[in-house]
Amino acid sequence: MYLGAQLFTDSEYEQRLTRVRGAMELQGLSALIVTEPANLFYLIGYNAWSFYTPQMLFVPIEGELLFFAREMDAHGAHRTTWLPPEQIVGYPESYVHRPHVHPFDWVAWALRQRHLIAPASKGGSVGLEMDSHYFTPKAYRALHNAIPEWKLVDGFELVNWARSVKSDAEIQLMRQAGMVCSEAMRAAIDTIDVGVRQCDAAAVISQAQITGTSDFGGDYPAIVPMMPTGAAADTPHLTWHQGTFAANEAVVIELTGVHNRYHCPLARTVALGKPSNDLDYVAQATAEGLNNVLDVIRPGVPTRELASTWNWTLAKYGLEKPSRLGYSIGIGYPPDWGERTISIRTEDETIMETNMTFHIICGMWMDNYGFELSESVRVSPTGVETFTSFPRELIQK
Protein backbone atom coordinates (compact mmCIF):
# COMPACT_ATOMS: atom_id res chain seq x y z
CA MET A 1 0.00 0.00 0.00
CA TYR A 2 1.19 3.53 -0.75
CA LEU A 3 2.59 4.99 2.47
CA GLY A 4 0.78 8.31 2.06
CA ALA A 5 -2.69 6.72 2.03
CA GLN A 6 -5.24 7.61 4.69
CA LEU A 7 -3.17 10.08 6.68
CA PHE A 8 -6.18 10.96 8.81
CA THR A 9 -9.07 9.02 10.29
CA ASP A 10 -12.41 8.60 8.53
CA SER A 11 -13.91 10.72 11.29
CA GLU A 12 -11.59 13.63 10.53
CA TYR A 13 -12.40 13.55 6.83
CA GLU A 14 -16.11 13.46 7.69
CA GLN A 15 -15.69 16.50 9.95
CA ARG A 16 -13.90 18.38 7.17
CA LEU A 17 -16.66 17.66 4.68
CA THR A 18 -19.32 18.64 7.21
CA ARG A 19 -17.51 21.94 7.83
CA VAL A 20 -17.28 22.65 4.11
CA ARG A 21 -20.92 21.79 3.48
CA GLY A 22 -21.97 24.02 6.35
CA ALA A 23 -20.13 26.91 4.70
CA MET A 24 -21.70 26.00 1.35
CA GLU A 25 -25.15 26.20 2.89
CA LEU A 26 -24.40 29.64 4.32
CA GLN A 27 -23.33 30.81 0.85
CA GLY A 28 -26.41 29.31 -0.81
CA LEU A 29 -24.43 26.80 -2.87
CA SER A 30 -25.95 23.60 -4.17
CA ALA A 31 -22.52 22.33 -5.22
CA LEU A 32 -18.86 23.29 -5.14
CA ILE A 33 -16.21 22.67 -7.80
CA VAL A 34 -12.81 22.14 -6.12
CA THR A 35 -9.68 22.35 -8.28
CA GLU A 36 -6.89 23.49 -5.96
CA PRO A 37 -4.54 20.57 -5.10
CA ALA A 38 -4.28 21.59 -1.42
CA ASN A 39 -8.06 21.52 -1.12
CA LEU A 40 -8.27 18.15 -2.86
CA PHE A 41 -5.70 16.84 -0.41
CA TYR A 42 -7.64 18.30 2.51
CA LEU A 43 -11.00 16.83 1.50
CA ILE A 44 -10.13 13.47 -0.05
CA GLY A 45 -6.40 12.92 0.58
CA TYR A 46 -5.50 12.92 -3.12
CA ASN A 47 -1.79 13.63 -3.61
CA ALA A 48 0.02 13.45 -6.95
CA TRP A 49 1.90 15.74 -9.34
CA SER A 50 -1.03 15.69 -11.73
CA PHE A 51 -2.22 19.27 -11.26
CA TYR A 52 -0.63 20.44 -14.50
CA THR A 53 -3.70 19.01 -16.22
CA PRO A 54 -7.26 19.90 -15.18
CA GLN A 55 -8.78 17.95 -12.30
CA MET A 56 -11.91 18.55 -10.28
CA LEU A 57 -13.74 17.39 -7.20
CA PHE A 58 -17.52 17.79 -7.47
CA VAL A 59 -18.94 18.42 -3.99
CA PRO A 60 -22.76 18.45 -3.89
CA ILE A 61 -24.52 19.82 -0.83
CA GLU A 62 -25.85 16.27 -0.39
CA GLY A 63 -24.79 12.99 -1.93
CA GLU A 64 -21.51 11.44 -3.02
CA LEU A 65 -18.38 13.28 -4.08
CA LEU A 66 -16.97 12.71 -7.56
CA PHE A 67 -13.32 13.20 -8.44
CA PHE A 68 -12.43 13.78 -12.10
CA ALA A 69 -8.83 13.51 -13.30
CA ARG A 70 -6.87 12.58 -16.40
CA GLU A 71 -7.48 8.91 -17.14
CA MET A 72 -3.91 7.81 -16.37
CA ASP A 73 -4.03 9.64 -13.02
CA ALA A 74 -7.53 8.50 -12.12
CA HIS A 75 -6.36 4.91 -12.65
CA GLY A 76 -4.09 5.13 -9.56
CA ALA A 77 -5.89 7.78 -7.53
CA HIS A 78 -7.16 5.15 -5.09
CA ARG A 79 -3.60 4.84 -3.79
CA THR A 80 -3.83 8.16 -1.95
CA THR A 81 -7.52 9.01 -1.60
CA TRP A 82 -10.17 7.46 0.61
CA LEU A 83 -12.75 7.72 -2.19
CA PRO A 84 -14.00 4.36 -3.49
CA PRO A 85 -13.18 3.55 -7.15
CA GLU A 86 -16.72 4.26 -8.38
CA GLN A 87 -16.32 7.90 -7.26
CA ILE A 88 -13.10 8.40 -9.24
CA VAL A 89 -13.62 9.15 -12.91
CA GLY A 90 -10.97 9.52 -15.61
CA TYR A 91 -11.47 11.71 -18.66
CA PRO A 92 -10.06 10.52 -22.02
CA GLU A 93 -6.51 11.30 -23.08
CA SER A 94 -7.88 12.90 -26.24
CA TYR A 95 -8.96 15.93 -24.15
CA VAL A 96 -5.46 16.69 -22.85
CA HIS A 97 -3.83 19.87 -24.20
CA ARG A 98 -6.10 20.29 -27.20
CA PRO A 99 -6.77 23.78 -28.57
CA HIS A 100 -10.51 23.50 -29.20
CA VAL A 101 -11.71 21.21 -26.43
CA HIS A 102 -11.18 21.15 -22.67
CA PRO A 103 -11.39 18.25 -20.20
CA PHE A 104 -14.24 20.02 -18.43
CA ASP A 105 -16.29 19.70 -21.62
CA TRP A 106 -16.17 15.96 -21.02
CA VAL A 107 -16.65 16.35 -17.25
CA ALA A 108 -19.82 18.37 -17.86
CA TRP A 109 -21.15 15.58 -20.07
CA ALA A 110 -20.27 13.00 -17.37
CA LEU A 111 -22.13 15.00 -14.71
CA ARG A 112 -25.14 15.29 -17.00
CA GLN A 113 -25.10 11.54 -17.62
CA ARG A 114 -25.26 11.00 -13.88
CA HIS A 115 -28.23 13.38 -13.55
CA LEU A 116 -26.23 15.70 -11.30
CA ILE A 117 -27.10 18.93 -13.09
CA ALA A 118 -30.10 20.87 -11.87
CA PRO A 119 -31.21 24.36 -12.91
CA ALA A 120 -29.98 27.13 -10.63
CA SER A 121 -33.60 28.08 -9.97
CA LYS A 122 -34.11 24.68 -8.32
CA GLY A 123 -30.72 23.89 -6.88
CA GLY A 124 -29.04 27.19 -6.03
CA SER A 125 -25.64 28.37 -7.21
CA VAL A 126 -22.50 26.36 -7.97
CA GLY A 127 -19.32 27.68 -6.37
CA LEU A 128 -16.01 27.89 -8.20
CA GLU A 129 -12.47 28.52 -6.98
CA MET A 130 -12.21 31.62 -9.12
CA ASP A 131 -8.83 32.78 -7.73
CA SER A 132 -7.15 29.38 -7.80
CA HIS A 133 -3.88 29.01 -9.70
CA TYR A 134 -5.35 25.84 -11.19
CA PHE A 135 -8.68 27.10 -12.54
CA THR A 136 -8.16 28.75 -15.90
CA PRO A 137 -10.40 31.03 -17.98
CA LYS A 138 -10.72 28.15 -20.45
CA ALA A 139 -11.95 25.85 -17.67
CA TYR A 140 -14.55 28.43 -16.68
CA ARG A 141 -15.69 28.84 -20.27
CA ALA A 142 -16.06 25.07 -20.68
CA LEU A 143 -18.36 24.81 -17.64
CA HIS A 144 -20.27 27.97 -18.50
CA ASN A 145 -20.99 26.82 -22.05
CA ALA A 146 -21.64 23.14 -21.31
CA ILE A 147 -23.91 23.65 -18.29
CA PRO A 148 -26.06 26.75 -18.89
CA GLU A 149 -28.45 25.55 -16.16
CA TRP A 150 -25.89 26.44 -13.51
CA LYS A 151 -25.41 29.83 -11.93
CA LEU A 152 -21.64 29.86 -11.50
CA VAL A 153 -20.39 32.04 -8.63
CA ASP A 154 -17.16 32.65 -6.75
CA GLY A 155 -16.79 30.36 -3.73
CA PHE A 156 -14.43 32.89 -2.10
CA GLU A 157 -11.81 30.36 -0.98
CA LEU A 158 -14.44 28.40 0.96
CA VAL A 159 -12.33 25.27 1.49
CA ASN A 160 -9.20 27.35 2.18
CA TRP A 161 -11.04 29.06 5.05
CA ALA A 162 -12.20 25.68 6.39
CA ARG A 163 -8.52 24.72 6.58
CA SER A 164 -7.54 27.70 8.74
CA VAL A 165 -8.09 25.93 12.09
CA LYS A 166 -6.03 22.75 12.23
CA SER A 167 -6.83 19.47 13.96
CA ASP A 168 -4.40 18.05 16.51
CA ALA A 169 -3.30 15.50 13.90
CA GLU A 170 -2.47 18.31 11.46
CA ILE A 171 -0.54 20.18 14.14
CA GLN A 172 1.60 17.10 14.73
CA LEU A 173 2.46 16.97 11.01
CA MET A 174 3.39 20.64 11.13
CA ARG A 175 5.67 20.02 14.11
CA GLN A 176 7.40 17.33 12.07
CA ALA A 177 7.63 19.74 9.13
CA GLY A 178 9.25 22.19 11.55
CA MET A 179 11.90 19.60 12.37
CA VAL A 180 12.59 19.12 8.67
CA CYS A 181 12.80 22.89 8.31
CA SER A 182 15.38 23.07 11.08
CA GLU A 183 17.54 20.51 9.29
CA ALA A 184 17.30 22.46 6.03
CA MET A 185 18.14 25.80 7.68
CA ARG A 186 21.14 24.29 9.50
CA ALA A 187 22.35 22.91 6.17
CA ALA A 188 21.93 26.34 4.58
CA ILE A 189 23.79 28.22 7.30
CA ASP A 190 26.60 25.63 7.40
CA THR A 191 27.03 25.67 3.61
CA ILE A 192 26.71 29.33 2.64
CA ASP A 193 30.12 30.97 2.73
CA VAL A 194 32.45 33.12 0.68
CA GLY A 195 33.41 31.40 -2.58
CA VAL A 196 30.60 28.79 -2.48
CA ARG A 197 28.44 28.64 -5.58
CA GLN A 198 24.84 29.61 -4.94
CA CYS A 199 23.57 26.62 -6.90
CA ASP A 200 25.64 24.27 -4.73
CA ALA A 201 24.12 25.77 -1.58
CA ALA A 202 20.64 25.35 -3.09
CA ALA A 203 21.43 21.69 -3.82
CA VAL A 204 22.47 21.07 -0.20
CA ILE A 205 19.31 22.75 1.07
CA SER A 206 17.10 20.74 -1.29
CA GLN A 207 18.73 17.49 -0.20
CA ALA A 208 18.10 18.35 3.45
CA GLN A 209 14.48 19.25 2.71
CA ILE A 210 13.80 15.90 1.06
CA THR A 211 15.94 13.76 3.39
CA GLY A 212 14.20 15.15 6.46
CA THR A 213 15.21 13.56 9.74
CA SER A 214 16.21 10.05 10.77
CA ASP A 215 12.63 9.45 11.94
CA PHE A 216 10.67 10.72 8.93
CA GLY A 217 11.41 11.98 5.44
CA GLY A 218 10.73 15.34 3.92
CA ASP A 219 8.65 16.24 0.91
CA TYR A 220 9.05 18.56 -2.08
CA PRO A 221 8.36 22.20 -1.21
CA ALA A 222 5.71 24.41 -2.74
CA ILE A 223 8.37 27.09 -3.17
CA VAL A 224 12.07 26.48 -3.85
CA PRO A 225 14.73 27.93 -1.51
CA MET A 226 15.05 31.69 -1.96
CA MET A 227 18.43 33.35 -1.46
CA PRO A 228 18.51 37.02 -2.48
CA THR A 229 22.07 38.19 -1.85
CA GLY A 230 23.94 41.45 -1.39
CA ALA A 231 22.29 44.41 -3.13
CA ALA A 232 19.72 42.01 -4.60
CA ALA A 233 18.42 41.27 -1.09
CA ASP A 234 16.24 44.36 -1.47
CA THR A 235 13.69 42.13 -3.20
CA PRO A 236 12.30 38.97 -1.58
CA HIS A 237 11.63 36.31 -4.19
CA LEU A 238 14.94 35.78 -5.99
CA THR A 239 16.31 32.24 -6.02
CA TRP A 240 19.92 31.35 -6.90
CA HIS A 241 22.41 31.43 -9.77
CA GLN A 242 25.74 29.79 -10.54
CA GLY A 243 27.83 32.66 -9.15
CA THR A 244 29.59 32.51 -5.80
CA PHE A 245 28.84 34.24 -2.51
CA ALA A 246 31.13 37.22 -1.89
CA ALA A 247 32.73 38.64 1.23
CA ASN A 248 30.84 41.35 3.15
CA GLU A 249 27.52 40.42 1.56
CA ALA A 250 24.38 39.42 3.42
CA VAL A 251 22.38 36.41 2.24
CA VAL A 252 18.67 36.15 2.97
CA ILE A 253 17.54 32.54 3.28
CA GLU A 254 13.84 31.72 3.07
CA LEU A 255 12.97 28.05 2.90
CA THR A 256 10.53 25.53 4.30
CA GLY A 257 10.32 22.11 5.78
CA VAL A 258 7.58 19.87 4.40
CA HIS A 259 6.14 16.66 5.77
CA ASN A 260 3.17 14.99 4.09
CA ARG A 261 2.40 18.30 2.30
CA TYR A 262 2.30 20.37 5.52
CA HIS A 263 4.69 23.33 5.37
CA CYS A 264 6.65 25.24 8.03
CA PRO A 265 8.62 28.08 6.42
CA LEU A 266 11.49 29.95 8.06
CA ALA A 267 13.67 32.93 7.12
CA ARG A 268 17.04 33.98 8.49
CA THR A 269 19.80 36.28 7.22
CA VAL A 270 23.53 35.46 7.14
CA ALA A 271 26.22 38.16 6.98
CA LEU A 272 29.44 36.98 5.31
CA GLY A 273 31.76 39.30 7.16
CA LYS A 274 31.09 42.51 9.04
CA PRO A 275 27.56 43.81 8.39
CA SER A 276 27.00 47.44 7.49
CA ASN A 277 25.67 49.78 10.15
CA ASP A 278 22.39 50.06 8.23
CA LEU A 279 21.91 46.30 8.11
CA ASP A 280 22.78 45.95 11.78
CA TYR A 281 20.24 48.65 12.69
CA VAL A 282 17.43 47.08 10.64
CA ALA A 283 18.24 43.63 12.07
CA GLN A 284 17.93 44.96 15.63
CA ALA A 285 14.58 46.61 14.88
CA THR A 286 13.26 43.53 13.10
CA ALA A 287 14.21 41.14 15.89
CA GLU A 288 12.56 43.34 18.50
CA GLY A 289 9.45 43.64 16.36
CA LEU A 290 9.14 39.89 15.82
CA ASN A 291 9.55 39.15 19.53
CA ASN A 292 6.91 41.75 20.38
CA VAL A 293 4.51 40.23 17.85
CA LEU A 294 4.98 36.73 19.25
CA ASP A 295 4.15 38.05 22.71
CA VAL A 296 0.74 39.26 21.47
CA ILE A 297 -0.39 35.98 19.88
CA ARG A 298 -3.15 34.16 21.75
CA PRO A 299 -6.74 33.03 21.12
CA GLY A 300 -9.30 35.84 20.96
CA VAL A 301 -6.88 38.50 19.68
CA PRO A 302 -7.58 40.03 16.23
CA THR A 303 -4.75 39.49 13.75
CA ARG A 304 -4.68 43.25 13.14
CA GLU A 305 -3.22 43.61 16.64
CA LEU A 306 -0.13 41.73 15.46
CA ALA A 307 0.29 44.16 12.59
CA SER A 308 -0.22 47.15 14.89
CA THR A 309 2.37 45.85 17.36
CA TRP A 310 4.85 45.37 14.52
CA ASN A 311 4.19 48.81 13.06
CA TRP A 312 4.62 50.56 16.42
CA THR A 313 7.92 48.78 17.02
CA LEU A 314 9.28 49.77 13.62
CA ALA A 315 8.11 53.34 14.12
CA LYS A 316 10.41 53.64 17.15
CA TYR A 317 13.30 53.05 14.77
CA GLY A 318 11.96 55.35 12.05
CA LEU A 319 11.14 52.38 9.82
CA GLU A 320 8.04 50.97 8.13
CA LYS A 321 7.00 47.86 6.23
CA PRO A 322 4.25 48.44 3.64
CA SER A 323 3.65 44.74 2.90
CA ARG A 324 1.67 42.32 5.08
CA LEU A 325 3.33 40.80 8.13
CA GLY A 326 2.29 37.20 7.53
CA TYR A 327 -0.36 34.75 6.44
CA SER A 328 -2.04 31.46 7.26
CA ILE A 329 -0.12 28.26 6.38
CA GLY A 330 -0.67 24.52 6.32
CA ILE A 331 -1.02 22.27 3.27
CA GLY A 332 0.98 23.53 0.31
CA TYR A 333 1.47 22.75 -3.37
CA PRO A 334 3.40 24.75 -5.97
CA PRO A 335 3.47 27.66 -6.47
CA ASP A 336 2.60 28.74 -2.91
CA TRP A 337 2.75 27.52 0.69
CA GLY A 338 0.22 30.08 1.96
CA GLU A 339 -3.48 29.31 2.36
CA ARG A 340 -4.60 32.55 0.61
CA THR A 341 -7.00 33.48 3.41
CA ILE A 342 -5.83 35.33 6.53
CA SER A 343 -3.28 38.08 5.90
CA ILE A 344 -1.76 39.78 8.93
CA ARG A 345 -2.29 43.50 8.34
CA THR A 346 -4.03 46.31 10.15
CA GLU A 347 -7.32 45.96 8.28
CA ASP A 348 -7.69 42.19 8.84
CA GLU A 349 -10.44 41.48 11.38
CA THR A 350 -9.86 37.73 11.76
CA ILE A 351 -9.92 36.62 15.41
CA MET A 352 -7.19 34.13 16.27
CA GLU A 353 -8.28 30.69 17.42
CA THR A 354 -6.40 27.79 18.96
CA ASN A 355 -4.63 25.74 16.26
CA MET A 356 -4.52 28.48 13.66
CA THR A 357 -1.05 28.48 12.12
CA PHE A 358 0.82 31.39 10.55
CA HIS A 359 4.07 32.34 8.90
CA ILE A 360 5.08 35.61 10.59
CA ILE A 361 7.52 37.09 8.08
CA CYS A 362 9.37 40.21 9.13
CA GLY A 363 10.98 41.03 5.81
CA MET A 364 12.62 44.43 5.42
CA TRP A 365 13.46 45.17 1.80
CA MET A 366 15.47 48.37 1.77
CA ASP A 367 17.51 50.06 -0.97
CA ASN A 368 20.33 47.75 -2.11
CA TYR A 369 20.13 45.53 0.97
CA GLY A 370 17.57 43.57 2.93
CA PHE A 371 16.96 41.55 6.07
CA GLU A 372 14.45 38.79 6.77
CA LEU A 373 13.50 37.08 9.99
CA SER A 374 10.46 34.83 10.26
CA GLU A 375 8.78 32.16 12.34
CA SER A 376 6.10 29.59 11.64
CA VAL A 377 3.78 29.49 14.64
CA ARG A 378 0.72 27.87 16.14
CA VAL A 379 -1.82 29.74 18.23
CA SER A 380 -1.82 27.65 21.41
CA PRO A 381 -4.52 27.76 24.12
CA THR A 382 -2.27 30.00 26.23
CA GLY A 383 -0.20 31.92 23.68
CA VAL A 384 2.13 30.88 20.87
CA GLU A 385 4.09 27.79 19.87
CA THR A 386 6.95 28.19 17.41
CA PHE A 387 7.73 25.24 15.17
CA THR A 388 11.50 25.95 15.07
CA SER A 389 14.00 27.41 17.54
CA PHE A 390 16.71 29.35 15.69
CA PRO A 391 18.14 32.53 17.27
CA ARG A 392 16.21 35.63 16.13
CA GLU A 393 19.16 37.71 15.05
CA LEU A 394 21.52 38.47 12.21
CA ILE A 395 23.80 35.42 11.81
CA GLN A 396 27.43 36.39 11.21
CA LYS A 397 30.02 34.12 9.61
How is this fold's topology laid out?
Elements: H1 10-26, E1 29-34, H2 37-44, E2 56-60, E3 66-70, H3 71-74, E4 88-91, H4 103-113, H5 120-123, E5 125-128, H6 137-146, E6 152-154, H7 158-162, H8 168-191, H9 198-211, E7 249-259, E8 262-272, H10 277-296, H11 303-316, E9 326-333, E10 336-344, E11 357-365, E12 370-380, E13 383-386, E14 395-396
Parallel strand pairs: 1-5, 3-4, 5-6, 8-14
Antiparallel strand pairs: 1-2, 2-3, 7-8, 9-10, 9-11, 11-12, 12-13
Helix pairs in contact: 4-6, 8-9, 10-11
Any overview of this molecule?
By secondary structure, the protein is of the alpha/beta class. It is 33% helix and 23% strand. The protein has eleven helices and 14 strands. The strands form three sheets. A six-stranded mixed beta sheet has the order 4-3-2-1-5-6. A five-stranded antiparallel beta sheet has the order 10-9-11-12-13. A three-stranded mixed beta sheet has the order 7-8-14. Helix 4 packs parallel to helix 6. The mean pLDDT is 96.
Question: Short summary of the structure?
Answer:
By secondary structure, the protein is of the alpha/beta class.
For the structure shown, list the relevant keywords.
33% helix, 397 residues, globular, six-stranded mixed β-sheet, alpha/beta, 14 strands, five-stranded antiparallel β-sheet
Overall morphology: globular
Please tally the β strands and state the result.
Answer: 14
Radius of gyration (Å): 23 Å
Hey, roughly how much beta strand do the residues contain? 15-25%
How many helices? The count is 11
User: How widely separated are the two ends?
Assistant: 46 Å
As laid out across the biggest beta sheet, the strand order is: 4-3-2-1-5-6
